[in-house]
Amino acid sequence: MSSTFCFSGPEGLKSTEHPIVFIHGTGMDHTVWTLPIRYFLRKKRNVLGIDLPGHGRSKGKLLRTIPAMAEWLINYLDKLNVKEFSVVGHSMGSLIALETAALAQKRTKNLVLVGTAFPMAVSEALLNYAKDNKSEAIDILTFMGYSNPARLGRNTNPGIWMTGSTKKLLEKSGKGVIYQDLRACTEYGSGFESAKKVSANTLLILGKKDFLTPPLKANDLIKSFNNPEVKVIADSGHTLMIESPNTVLDYLIEVL
Fold first, then answer.
1. Residue 166 counted as domain residue
2. How many domains does the chain have?
3. Within a 10 A sphere around the Cβ of 224, how many other Cβ atoms?
4. Residue 41: which of 15, 79, 2, 69 has the closest Cα?
5. Where are the alpha helices (DSSP H) in the chain?
């Protein structure tokens, strides 16, 4: 547990009462959730911004499957004596959040999936680039992770270079991290069954211009949940919390 980095504010986690757990996507870390983490901390909410094993500032061996990551997360929450929680995940993190909510049904109060799809298939070309640790893998993920306008610099929050910051973040990931994450996404096969087990209040936030997980690819998953809420951001791509941070935050505030 000491090898795991989790951001809960400058003073650390003060209480384990119903924290909001944020889970990042492939090759990333908790910093992608900076805006909502800061907001909920200001509102005196308990927050856990997780760096998965082998990601960001967390040490430990990479976990190779989505179920293994979900089981690890539940074990981590057990060690913190967290009884109930809400969980928010982006991309790969959304699959981890889904599996966590299915495994810890009575403890998960709210489930938010951002930039999600199932199956979350990854092309052989991208997998091969990532396996060989070639820069093309990061280039593809960065380019495809944003809508066309965002690639040109459109940002409602001035001073942030969206594609540049994402590329730098991915470049910081350790050798083999992106490959193992992508492989875990493409091999995850129990999404529909897990969605049927979820009892949590469920929200999906999707980007209409998402090239990596198009909203169409989430339709069957949506049907597997019991009465989920779905928000589609018309002008956003895959990395919604960076490209449309204020809208995503507004939606999170509504449900959390």
1. yes
2. 1
3. 18
4. 15
5. 34-42, 66-79, 92-103, 124-131, 135-144, 148-151, 162-171, 177-187, 191-197, 219-224, 240-243, 245-255
Residue 215 preceded by cis peptide, ω within 30: no
Q: Which residue has the tokens 């910093």?
A: 31
Name the region of 60 (left: φ>0; alpha: ψ -120 to 50; beta: rest): left
111, β-bridge pairs: 87, 202
Backbone angles phi, psi at 110, to 5 degrees: -135, 140
* Residues in CB range of 223: below 8 A, 6 or more apart: none
Provide φ and ψ at 66, rounded to 5°.
-65, -45
Q: Which of 68, 41, 33, 39 is nearest to 54 (CA)?
A: 68
Range of the domain at 117: 6-255
Quote the DSSP letter at residue 119: S
Instruction: From first to last of the 256 residues of the chain, give the pLDDT tens digit.
Output: 459 999 999 999 999 999 999 999 999 999 999 999 999 999 999 999 999 999 999 999 999 999 999 999 999 999 999 999 999 999 999 999 999 999 999 999 999 999 999 999 999 999 999 999 999 999 999 999 998 877 776 666 555 668 888 999 999 999 999 999 999 999 999 999 999 999 999 999 999 999 999 999 999 999 999 999 999 999 999 999 999 999 999 999 999 9
DSSP letter at 33? G
> pTM of this prediction?
0.96
Query: Is 1 inside a domain boundary?
Result: no
| Long-range contacts of the stretch 215-218 (C-beta < 8 A, 24+) | 217/117, 217/118, 217/119, 217/120, 218/116, 218/117, 218/118
CA distance 44 to 18: 12
